[in-house]
Design a protein that fits this description.
39% of the residues lie in helices and 21% in strands. The strands form 6 sheets. The protein has a 7-stranded mixed beta sheet with strand order 16-17-18-15-14-19-20, sandwiched between helices. Strands 11-10-9-12-13-21 form a 6-stranded mixed beta sheet, sandwiched between helices. It has a 3-stranded antiparallel beta sheet with strand order 7-8-22. The protein is of the alpha/beta class and 488 residues long. β7 and β8 form a beta hairpin.
Length: 488
């Protein structure tokens, strides 16, 4: 392709137009997509507005009846075909996404893109396992069915664009819904490639649509549209509030996976090397992970030794070009995000925090891995999500204090616990407010498990059958044992 709507990223052609109703559609306006690797402009992306929003909802609505009536086995076959397409183009997807959002190429190759394909395969297979449950009530038969809900708007973030998009797209399609995918404007490119892959796999026109745009310019129209039946969003709390208000008029069901300020609790009986490894792992993806355990809570008796080992290990992390195999931490996504991170740290230091390591930006792309101590529990740096390579360290003296500190924020997305005492692990995890708790491990996620957050970290759960609960309208049909006429 050589037209003006195609850009080339590392020899991969990417169409910059929307994908609506099985066709490429350009907008009058555009926005510039910039690579965080070097700040270079990758190209001009079609900038959707109200007119594109109306068109994409109409396309999804028109395609819905036929897709909803498609037998589950055929829907599953098409999802597997999409997974085949992802695997066929895995290297292209990996390099485009690395260029677009700055995450490590080695991670995209070995973990992220294989997981993208797995998302489609898992929900394709799970669809065929959905039980049409029947049970008796005073001789009457109850029959439970999972009915497709309708057009779904899926709004996804920039930190793991394709993986988090397909975590939503796959179950929504499997359930028999049509999809409108709105990727983040800082990392839109692999969503466009996904549209190509789905079309090549034979997905009918209008079943998967992709629209790009800047925040509320297109998002408000999509989330307030009366023909939209489900909205799933991953992102910030302020944006979630806006989406919730927009959806309220139509009582559109929402699934919201929001921010986190997760604790990582280290008890004196923990394997200290393991605990340090878990803590340093929180710098993954330049700290741009909603699940990251950014609040290190360490028992007083081991705090000094823990800090010494942590500092030694963190100092060996390599920041640089994410395409280089030796790199551990790539750049932060955007200069605005870097400025936000730096603002958090500068205010914390001004309020009395001490930077054990880091505490400064290295240039206009990288923020140095940072550990702050001497922080107050009610301080901004402890209470608010930074979304960068910034950790805080606080100490505790008792198990009771550890739990109190862990739960003392408005968030409740995840928690990580390092301990050698099985009974302690059971006691503490039972009291932690979190959607996911990891014990002596981190970031182990099975698609069968529910995923989501408590408090301001989200509404609802997705994953496994919980995804189908959200993307379907469950129906119970109760049939009397008598009253049938013989038509034979």
């Amino acid at each position: 392709m050589t037209d003006t709507h195609t850009i080339t990223v590392a020899s991969v052609a990417v169409d910059t137009r929307h994908w609506i109703g099985g066709e490429r559609v350009a907008s009058a306006g555009t926005f510039t997509d910039v690579s965080p690797i070097d700040g270079a402009a990758l190209g001009e992306i079609s900038r959707g507005t109200a007119s594109e929003a109306a068109a994409v909802v109409a396309a999804a609505k028109a395609a819905f009846p036929a897709w909803a009536a498609t037998p589950p086995a055929e829907r599953a076959r098409l999802l597997h075909a999409i997974a085949d397409g992802v695997e066929k183009r895995l290297e292209e997807l990996a390099i485009v996404e690395t260029t677009d959002n700055g995450a490590l190429l080695r991670s995209h190759r070995r973990g992220v893109m294989p997981r993208v394909a797995h998302n489609f395969r898992f929900f394709a297979d799970r669809l065929l396992q959905l039980g049409h449950e029947e049970f008796e009530t005073r001789g009457h038969t109850n029959h439970v069915s999972w009915d497709p809900a309708g057009p779904c708007v899926l709004i996804t973030p920039w930190n793991a664009p394709l993986m988090l998009a397909t975590w939503k797209v796959a179950p929504a399609l499997a359930a028999g819904n049509t999809v409108i995918l709105k990727p983040a404007e800082w990392s839109p490119l692999t969503a466009s490639l996904l549209a190509d892959i789905a079309a090549e796999a034979g997905l009918p026109a209008g079943v998967l649509n992709v629209v790009q745009g800047l925040g509320s310019e297109i998002g408000d129209v999509l989330t307030s549209h009366p023909d939209v039946r489900r909205i799933s969003f991953t992102g910030s709390v302020p944006t979630a509030r806006r989406i919730s208000a927009s959806a309220a008029a139509n009582l559109t069901p929402l699934s919201l996976e929001l921010g986190g300020k997760s604790p990582l609790l280290v008890f004196a009986d923990a394997d200290l090397d393991l605990a340090v490894d878990l803590a340093v792992e929180q710098y993954d993806n330049a700290g741009q992970v909603c699940l990251a355990g950014t609040r290190l809570l360490v028992e007083e008796s081991i705090a000094e030794e823990f800090t010494r080992r942590f500092t030694e290990k963190a100092s060996r992390l390599v920041q640089g070009d994410p395409r280089d195999e030796a790199t551990d931490i790539g750049p932060n996504i955007h200069p605005r995000q870097l400025e936000k991170i730096d603002g958090f740290v500068r205010r914390a230091v001004a309020a009395g925090a001490r930077a054990v390591i880091g505490g400064h930006r290295k240039d206009d792309r990288f923020y140095a891995p940072t550990l702050l101590t001497d922080v107050a529990q009610d301080s901004e740096i402890v209470q608010e999500e930074v979304f960068g390579p910034v950790l805080t360290l606080q100490t505790f003296g008792t198990e009771e204090e550890a739990v109190r500190l862990a739960n003392d924020t408005r968030f409740g997305l995840a928690a990580t616990l390092a301990t050698g005492d099985h009974q302690r692990a059971e006691r503490v995890t039972a009291r932690l407010v979190a959607g996911t708790v990891w014990v002596n491990c981190f970031f182990v996620r099975d698609l069968q498990a529910p995923f989501g957050g408590s408090r301001h970290s989200g509404v609802g759960r997705e994953g496994g059958d919980w995804s189908f609960d959200f993307y379907c309208d469950l129906k119970n049909t109760v049939t009397a044992p008598e009253g049938w006429k013989d038509h034979g």
